[in-house]
Amino acid sequence: MYSKFMTKQQFKSVTKLWQPKSMKYSVKMTNQAKHESVVVFEKVININRKIYPNGSLRVFSDIKNAENGKRSSLQIDETDKIYGEYAFDNNNEVEEDERAAIKNLLYSENHDEIMKLIKSCESYTELNDLVFKFDGQLKKDHIIQSIAMLWIFRNNCRSVSATEVMKENLCNFLLTRLELYITEIDVNEASCSFLYLRKMEVSKTHPVMCALLTKALDLVNDPRKHVDLTALSRLLVGINNGRDFFAPVICANFINYIYKYIKTCRTEEDARLLAICILNLQPLIDYEILNAFKERISTLLQIGVISAHCPKVIIKLLNMLNIGVWSHQNVPLIRDLLAALKPCVQQLEANALKNVCRIYQYHMEPAMLHAPLALAIENLLSNQTSPETLAYFVPFCEPMRRDALVNTFKSLVNSTESWEQPNASAHLFSALRALKISDIAICDTYWNRILQELICASEEEISQLRFLRHCHRYMHFNNNLGGTYRHIGIEQQLSQMAIRAIEYDVSGRIPHIFARLASFVFAYDHTPYNWKKYPNILLSKIINMAEQFTPADCFLISRGIYISLELRYRHQIPPLINMQLATIDSVLTSCADRYLNTIEESQYTLNDLNSLTLEFTFVSITALKNSVAYHRTLAKYKEVKCNDLNSRLIKDMAFNFTATNYLVPQILESMFEYITNNYEYIAGDTVEKILTCTYNLGYTPKSSEALQKSSLILLRDFKYMNGLSLVQACLALCFYKALPDELIDKVFCVNFIQRVENEIQMCYSKATYPERVLNLIMQLNRSVCLDYPECNVPWFQQNFINAQMSKKSFYESSFRRDVKKFLTTVLQDESYFRCNHVTPYGYEIDFVIHFDRDKKAIKSPVETTMLDRITKVAILLLKLDSFCENDIKALRGPESLKVKHLEMMGYKVLHITEHDWYSKYMKFDQAKRNYIKCLLKISN
């Protein structure tokens, strides 16, 4: 069919133009037997907008990255991705079972003698001699089988020179002979030949390749021909193999076959081949196809067709479902497929095991897979100690084993052999960051090696922007260390490379790439005038590209600015910087408004809102946080439906709600329901995120069942969680009066205290982390002593509180000073109230007033015998951040817990809120005096 309206030469020239484009396509494809169908490729754009929203932090999909040869800047895991699937190393050696499958791919064993000889070849030399020996007797079948055999030997060949010889000699010879039989081959032969020739890097413009593809497409689009799923999958992989065709154009009519084969999918092999097809047709896959495929796979899982006996099929399905553009929609099925792998985890080969670990770590479900994966990857590490296996094992290891792993990392980072392994810098970075190593010498060793690579980088590598991965890693690394670690050499080199790309490279004109480049320059900026302003070119390009930025781009830009204000302008912001920040503020606000208007017109998801909220959460500009767009974004959470929650979504939402103090009861209740309904799947770290978030916001679930399940999950995952997470979770359960005795016993024991001390020694930010952990332990100790006196946990934090109070310098705010003035006026003497009182358990009270039985204020009593005859009144001054962002009456959890505990200690607690004190009706002094009298119930 294609050959009727396009000559070979035309086909050859057109294929050069079939590159991925960002514009809308409208292409007419003819069908010989049926009516003409017009495939409008605007649908592709609309599908991608709906199914693959920019809201996901994995905004650069695996497929797009494969097309562009780039990695996502937003994924910490920098595993290489090839054509939508994941490659963990460059060793593509064909395994024995695959070799046997390829040998018998098309032709059965019962064939002529030449075919038997070809199949029996064990080396390239044998094949080469055999083909030239029987040159005159070779037929179509022999040539195609020889191509498949050549692929086996070429792929296993370690010698570059030998590979080149194969290309020049035998491959060209087979191509010449194959051209004579193009008109005779069927779709299976055409797809097989095309695939293996493409894998052997034969140019797509070669006449035989053009003829093969034309023949294959004609056969696929001929309704009189049967095209089986195997041939279809081979052809699609062949087309996408070189990343130089725009598959939606030439594969549009393949969709009809996908519909048909989804309906007839009965075996695990059908499922595997369909996964390959759908993966390679990703831009054309809509909701209907994806959902139909997922339903079929779910059915096959339920009836046991897909199970642990076919792990390779499950992993193929996982790779397809987990690509960034739609993985957030497939979480339930991904979780079920991962759970199905549990019985065979220990038997998985190394690459498959790493693949499963990567997917599990991203989705954080199902929890039942954690222990077997931890054991399997530990065994792999003991047999193959490499940067890659270490990086995969660290997230699974128990906290007390980190010392040994740090020593392993030291040996690897100092080993030249380790750095020669594929993707070594990414794996070593993952391990370094996950281990939270605070040894400056080790950090310097890693970044010095990266600096050497950057200095020695070729022009091709620089033009391909491979240095951007190091920009991304360094910014994350520096953030983790709170700005305490700097490697000036890396910053200077990367800043120079980034600014050069922005000024002179075409990539500096592509919005999402510019945002990544500009983010690093904003953050570390080693240009001549960095002490007083950002480079002018950044501002001009931000203004020019304003209409094209996505929320993810805005997030990257704001994050870079945030780092710069923390590192370079913390104490004083130069006037020029202030002017530039005002300009950036208006651009980012307009981008947020535009995106909000867009999602209002369509159905938006939690994924969209999480991404947009994250932009505001990390933004460095106060005006943007106070903008209308910011509050509109948060308000959208009240309208969105929570039908398909998962651990990844919950983690993002919990972070956003905790950072913004925004209360959405229906979503928080949905989180607790998720715990109740998914006890066996949800992990302890996810439960801790939920509990910390809801405690921070002061929200109490409707049912206690979720809290009981949370306790069981924490006990189940106790040894895998870090001390800080466990303490935070227990403090939240204390707030809900739902902390079980077993958990109290496990936390308040010598082993756990020693475990926390070891973690503090290993922490990455010794300026803040130790004090944060110790302060939370103090709060937990206090809560348990007051709420669970029957557990007999001793109060052992008084020395810590005394030390903290001695270091704390007193600062009297204008709010406190103003209230104190009016209290003095009302009570007529300062001796009738006590300021800044500290209770035995370390609670600070702004003002304490004692009243006698006649409700008259008295001076603070000295004799303890009088305490039963007086009333202690504690006045707490509550600032705006004591309440939720969107509800000035919703007291947050820590403040509520403080009130409860003070009441348990015999205080009557009263509040004076900042928003009331400075409201319009409290503008005059007399109103404030009357307010104080009314609060204290003083009549005169």
Automatic annotation (TrEMBL):
InterPro entries: FAST_2, FAST_Leu-rich, RAP. GO terms for biological process: regulation of mitochondrial mRNA stability. Residues 873-934 form the RAP domain. Pfam families: FAST_1, FAST_2, RAP. PROSITE patterns: RAP. It comes from the Eukaryota. This is RAP domain-containing protein.
